[in-house]
Design goal:
Blueprint: E1 4-12, H1 19-28, H2 30-38, H3 43-57, E2 64-68, H4 74-81, E3 85-90, H5 93-100, E4 107-111, E5 124-130, H6 139-149, E6 150-161, E7 191-199, E8 202-210, H7 213-222, E9 225-231, H8 237-242, E10 255-262
Parallel strand pairs: 2-3, 2-5, 3-4, 5-6
Antiparallel strand pairs: 1-7, 6-10, 7-8, 9-10
Helix pairs in contact: 6-7
């Protein structure tokens, strides 16, 4: 199996980083990202935040679901496989092309900015945002649009990298049996930065934003949501034993899964 690693680097992007910049960046790496997710290299998705996200979504049989920032379609396929009817949107046409390369019953993929979904006469029982909000310049716009098309008794489930352990100039903790030290970096400033990934010896970047947890809570409230549950998924010891890359996630929280409901 090809080797993979991801490293956070102190490489801030100019504050004017726009939706067009994000679209171009993800379109450039769409095929690499699709391979990464589908090849078994993304063990954090397969064994940590992915299962937690699906557990938080619960029984979706027969539900109408909107997947915002769907990327290559992992979350949409999972939800459809559990019986949901999914509309999945992503601003990158290259990512939607990758998603459509694995045709899945009950999934309708659309090239669309998540902030524009409120322009449709859609109604959903559940909105899912699987590891996508942190890659958006204006996630509150996406959340506000999602609230507009979500039923009043519906739910929002989203996953993000944990703000305390994924910062723009943080350093990963040592692996295996070494002492656990964590340089959290600059937690508070909201700014964009690049994450460099390596698969099969080839390096490529993605874009994400550094935001504190309080900023996400404020954005949810501003969009009309109240946080119902906050989960910090952790791998099992058996999975850590099988995959050394999960060692850090077994000792400090790497991800958050947020469940929110429309405010009454």
């Amino acid at each position: 199996m090809a080797r993979m690693r991801a490293a956070r680097v102190a490489e801030p992007i100019v504050p004017e980083c726009t939706t067009d910049d994000v679209r171009a960046a993800w379109s450039e790496v769409a095929r690499r990202w699709s391979y990464f997710v589908r090849s078994g290299l993304d063990v954090h998705r397969d064994l940590v935040h992915g299962p937690a996200m699906m557990d938080a979504c619960g029984d979706v049989r027969g539900l109408r679901v909107l997947d915002v920032g769907c990327g290559e379609g992992w979350c949409s396929r999972q939800l459809a496989g559990r019986g949901a009817h999914v509309v999945a949107v992503d601003l990158s046409d290259a990512m939607i092309t990758e998603a459509r390369s694995l045709p899945t019953a009950r999934v309708d993929y659309r090239v669309m900015d998540a902030g524009d979904v409120d322009g449709r006469s859609w109604r959903f029982d559940l909105v899912a945002a699987c590891m996508s909000l942190h890659s958006m310049p204006d996630p509150e716009a996406a959340l506000s649009a999602a609230r507009h098309v979500l039923a009043d008794d519906g739910r929002l489930v989203c996953s993000i990298p944990h703000p305390a352990t994924h910062t723009s100039d943080g350093e990963p903790a040592p692996l295996a049996d070494e002492p656990l030290y964590l340089h959290a970096g600059a937690y508070y400033p909201t700014r964009s930065y690049r994450v460099w990934w390596t698969t099969a010896g080839e390096e490529w970047p993605t874009i994400r934003w550094n935001r504190p947890l309080s900023a996400y809570r404020a954005m949810l409230a501003g969009a009309g949501f109240a946080v119902h549950a906050l989960l910090e998924p952790c791998p099992s010891q058996a999975d850590v034993d099988r995959h050394q890359r999960l060692s850090r996630a077994g000792r400090v929280p790497n991800y958050l899964v947020l469940v929110a409901r429309p405010r009454s």
